[in-house]
């Protein structure tokens, strides 16, 4: 009886080991096939469009399913830098330097041009830090962004980028400061740097789980949806941030699809017009989404 019992245990141990090994090998090959299709389809689109771009796609559930083209190429960040400003603000809250309830007064002299709602408000007006961050992300408000930058300081924001591993991201000027941009001073980032911050947010590792949840909530509330979400099925949840400035059109975020969540980041420069750049990003986004159907 003891020998029979031992034999049964050995049989199931071997069976479990072989089954697990077989599943691992199957999953590995399936993931490689998926990555190959992803690379083939996106490469074809990039080559035939002749667009100067960087693209990163990373599956957030399956290890090894990812695609990168020009991921370390530096681009003028435009409003994409606001993801890193958000991260720095949440770090300051975690360190006790600020809180999301910190009250900040915006004066008429603080107003800057470009996108945003504050410039149309009756000022002076008091906001909480949370409200400014919401406007900065969901409405890409430049006045809110500049107020947060002045609150944190350039050095603190750039140090935060280094802490996060965003080594090629740098904030050197305020939003809409084209006089400095004309002198060659600009804000820069890469598709890789944006994607690693998004991954930390998704995994609850942007300093604290609560900070990550807050950042995700803002990105999911994005009101500018003419790029990554544009061609996706209605109701698809996308947590993302856009960037738009002379010669650059960007979008990066997390797509929550029925068959998997993934990061997609598309940065472009030198496109012939904004409409073309937005459509290019939307087409890359739909192309990737189709692989998850």
SS-based class: alpha+beta
Domain count: 1
Radius of gyration: 22 Å
CATH architecture level-2 label? 3-Layer(aba) Sandwich
Low-confidence stretches: 18-27
Spatially, the strands of the biggest sheet line up as 2-1-9-8-7
Counting DSSP E segments of at least 2 residues, the number of strands comes to 9
Write out the CATH superfamily name.
Answer: DD-peptidase/beta-lactamase superfamily
Overall body shape? globular
Q: Report how far the terminal alpha carbons are from each other.
A: 52 Å
Q: Per DSSP, what share of the residues sits in E-state strands of 2 or more residues?
A: 15-25%
CATH class: Alpha Beta
> Per CATH, what is the topology?
Beta-lactamase
Give average pLDDT, whole number: 91
Taking the sheet with the most strands, its summary is: 5 strands, antiparallel
What is the count of DSSP helices, taking H or I runs of 4+ residues? 9
Helix fraction by DSSP (H/I, runs of at least 4) = 40-55%
Secondary-structure element pattern, one letter each: HEEEHEEHHHHEHHEEEH
In short:
By secondary structure, this protein is of the alpha+beta class. Helices cover 47% and strands 18% of the residues.
Q: How would you explain this protein's 3D organization?
A:
This protein has 293 residues and is α+β, with helices and mostly antiparallel strands. The chain has one domain: Beta-lactamase, CATH 3.40.710. Helices cover 47% and strands 18% of the residues. It has a five-stranded antiparallel β-sheet with strand order 2-1-9-8-7, sandwiched between helices. A hairpin with a 2-residue loop joins β7 and β8. α2 crosses α5 and α3 crosses α4. The longest helix is centred in the N-terminal third of the chain and has 48 residues. It starts with a helix and ends with a helix. About 3% of the residues have low confidence.
């Amino acid at each position: 009886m003891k020998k029979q019992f031992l034999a049964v245990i050995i049989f199931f141990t071997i069976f479990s080991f072989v089954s697990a090994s077989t599943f691992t090998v199957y999953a590995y090959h399936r993931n490689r096939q998926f990555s190959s299709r992803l690379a083939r389809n996106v490469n074809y689109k990039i080559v035939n469009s002749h667009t100067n771009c960087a693209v990163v796609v990373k599956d957030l559930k399956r290890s090894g399913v990812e695609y990168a083209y020009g991921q370390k190429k530096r681009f003028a960040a435009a409003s994409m830098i606001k993801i890193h400003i958000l991260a720095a603000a949440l770090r300051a809250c975690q360190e006790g330097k600020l809180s999301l309830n910190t009250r900040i007064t915006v004066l008429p002299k603080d107003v800057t041009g470009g996108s945003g709602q504050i410039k149309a408000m009756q000022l002076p007006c008091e906001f909480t830090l949370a409200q400014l961050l919401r406007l900065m992300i969901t409405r890409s408000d430049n006045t809110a962004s500049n107020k947060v930058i002045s609150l944190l300081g350039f050095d603190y924001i750039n140090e935060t980028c280094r802490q996060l591993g965003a080594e090629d991201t740098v904030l050197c000027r305020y939003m809409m400061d084209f006089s400095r941009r004309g002198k060659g001073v600009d804000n820069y980032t890469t598709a890789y740097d944006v994607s690693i911050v998004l991954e930390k947010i998704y995994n609850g590792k942007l300093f604290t789980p609560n900070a990550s949840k807050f950042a995700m909530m803002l990105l999911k509330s994005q009101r500018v949806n003419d790029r990554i979400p544009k061609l996706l099925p209605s109701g698809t949840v996308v947590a993302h941030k856009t960037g738009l400035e002379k010669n650059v059109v960007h979008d990066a975020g997390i797509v929550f699809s029925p068959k998997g969540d993934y990061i997609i980041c598309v940065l472009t420069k030198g496109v012939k017009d904004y409409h073309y750049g937005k459509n290019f990003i939307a087409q890359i986004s739909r192309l990737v989404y189709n692989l998850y159907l």
